[in-house]
Amino acid sequence: MKTWQATLATIIVIAVIATAAYAVYYTPKSTGEKKIVIYTYESLLGWGKNPNETWDKVFGEFERTTGVKVEVVKFDDAGTALTKAIEEYKAGRHYADIIIGIDNILVSKAKKAGILEKYTPGNINEINKKLIEALDPEGYVTPYDYGLIALVYDTKYIPEQAMTNLTFQNLLTRTVNINGKQVKLVNTLVTEDPRKSSTGLGFLLWQIAVYKHYHLGNWTTWWIKGNPKVVGSWGDAYDLFDKGKYHIVVSYGTDPAYSMYFYNTTRYKAALVEYNGKPVAWLQIEGIALLKDAPHKKYAEKFIDWFLSKQVQDLIPLNNWMYPANIKAKLPDVYKYAIDPSNVELANLYFAKGEVQSNLEQWLNQWFETISTKS
Known about the structure:
Elements: H1 4-26, E1 35-41, H2 51-66, E2 69-75, H3 78-90, E3 98-103, H4 106-113, E4 116-117, H5 129-135, E5 141-154, H6 168-173, E6 175-178, E7 181-184, E8 189-192, H7 198-213, H8 220-225, E9 229-231, H9 234-242, E10 248-252, H10 255-263, E11 268-271, E12 273-275, E13 278-291, H11 297-307, H12 310-313, H13 316-319, E14 323-324, E15 345-346, H14 355-374
Parallel strand pairs: 1-2, 1-3, 8-9, 8-10, 13-15
Antiparallel strand pairs: 3-13, 4-13, 5-10, 5-11, 5-13, 5-14, 6-7, 12-13
């Protein structure tokens, strides 16, 4: 039988070996190495007709024109990518140079952790100024796309009239005839867990903002009175919607354009809530940022400029299905089926500066407690 001293010695040796192996993998050979490492979410630019071709046009082209090798590390979502970057920074490991996908909710977490470095892209004048102000006027994160959270519905089951003049309140009470039964709209709605999904979080903040702005009472009453289906991710929600198990899904205002582009159908439409005769929605803005102490900073800065260029931004609408942040980028004709954010009142503006960041944890806890009580 081994003594405890021998066992301890073995553990120490294993720990040293593991640490050394980790350092070899996560530490670049040289800061002068002509490469960059990017952290991002798995579905980035993955929604076009030929994702591999699009990927090559963005990352491959940068490699060919600059001679800089690009390594992209994909995570399930942007939140997971950010968490990884924060963990590595706190541990003193500086592996990644860039993070893509920090949205207008994650930005405060990233800045608070101190993992970002200010960078003003050379083509910053081509980026929508309103988006810059809304995402990060301090200049740590630069917007590359944006889009509205919306209620996407299947007109095979839900008539357009039922989604007209919609409010969060009458979403609870309106009924539609589905297969001979009167069903409340809210009972055929599937949404995402706001603790795990940026889409679900956008929906929750949209609702909280409207309840606050229009003095509709405690926002948790909506979740108490309603009974929407809640799942972990956007993919899970859309899968249930696509299979016809639920007929309204929390998704994006560009979804009808996607359906027309790929399936040549107007069957799927998107709706917003309306108050005082104005459509109101939550705007999600996604950004790209330089990580602090980036091992390959000068090459990373070149890539950020490239990613924000018209050449790359022209690819955003049909591959990320969001609006491009570069004002010179062109929108395809199919976007006439999407909800234009410029024609919508933004619920984001109903919050005071810093209000979301100060209250987000509390709101998520309240939401979970409410949902758990109903379960």
